[in-house]
């Protein structure tokens, strides 16, 4: 099983700041890493697919990078509506696994 | 437009069997490459993958829960059913069904259904 470890677990950020969340895989997964945003009492929403590919309708301030074992989600110029938990997910091999999540709070 | 919706009991007793139905629209589960998966999330915790069924009826399960899970599909009804036996309070969670795209990633999620296991 591929373990995904996110850091940090929690981040308190002021609006317009840049947020960086990392996800490290226990073994190489190529670019089969996807990012989701989950707001309270909502289901997850796909933000980035295949490490860096943008999703239609997702604001351009969200971007992803990385390959192999190290990946990054970047939120440029954080907005109040970005308060949420963020999860990485690998589809390289079964069982599918998710990171433990990173909660982003707005100061 | 792809939509999925979970249905089933909100409360089950320990040792009982849970049956959840995912009813979807906007895609066909007979399309090559497509799948529907189940993922759960205990309150305040992370996401955990449970099971996945592919268009060709291939079925895959979480190794840690494999003995308790069964996933089936009814293509004509656009439904996928998950059963989980021997429920325990630690299985209390929101259960989501989700669309696996042809590209291999989850792109759409249902709204989720909270299942509480308690006597």
Automatic annotation (TrEMBL), chain A:
GO terms for biological process: adaptive immune response. Keywords: Adaptive immunity, Immunity, Immunoglobulin, Immunoglobulin domain. It holds the Pfam family V-set. Gene3D superfamilies: Immunoglobulins. The keyword Transmembrane helix does not apply. Signal peptide: none annotated. One of its GO terms (cellular component) is extracellular region. The keyword NADP does not apply. It comes from the Eukaryota. Residues 1-88 form the Ig-like domain. InterPro entries: Ig-like_dom, Ig-like_dom_sf, Ig-like_fold, Ig_sub, Ig_V-set, IgV_Light_Chain. Immunoglobulins are composed of two identical heavy chains and two identical light chains; disulfide-linked. This is IGL c4176_light_IGKV6D-21_IGKJ1. It comes from Homo sapiens. The lineage of its organism: Eukaryota, Metazoa, Chordata, Craniata, Vertebrata.
């Amino acid at each position: 099983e591929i373990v995904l470890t996110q850091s940090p677990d929690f981040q308190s950020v002021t609006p317009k700041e840049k947020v960086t969340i990392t996800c490290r895989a226990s073994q190489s997964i190529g670019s089969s890493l996807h990012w989701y945003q989950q707001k309270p009492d909502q289901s997850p929403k796909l933000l980035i697919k295949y490490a860096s590919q943008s999703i239609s309708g997702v604001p351009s301030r969200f971007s992803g990078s990385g390959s192999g074992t190290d990946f990054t989600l970047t939120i440029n110029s954080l907005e109040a509506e970005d308060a949420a938990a963020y999860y990485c997910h690998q589809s390289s091999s079964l069982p599918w696994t998710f990171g433990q999540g990173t909660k982003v709070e707005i100061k | 437009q792809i939509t999925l919706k979970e249905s089933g009991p909100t409360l089950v007793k320990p040792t009982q069997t849970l049956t959840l139905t995912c009813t979807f629209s906007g895609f066909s589960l007979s399309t090559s490459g497509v799948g529907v998966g189940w993922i759960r999330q205990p309150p305040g915790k992370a996401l955990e993958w449970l099971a996945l069924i592919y268009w060709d009826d291939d079925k895959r399960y979480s190794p840690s829960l494999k003995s308790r899970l069964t996933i089936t599909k009814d293509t004509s009804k656009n439904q996928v059913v998950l059963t989980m036996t021997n429920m325990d309070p630690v299985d209390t969670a929101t259960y989501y069904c989700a669309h696996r795209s042809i590209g291999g990633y989850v792109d759409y999620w249902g709204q989720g259904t909270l299942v509480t296991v308690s006597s």
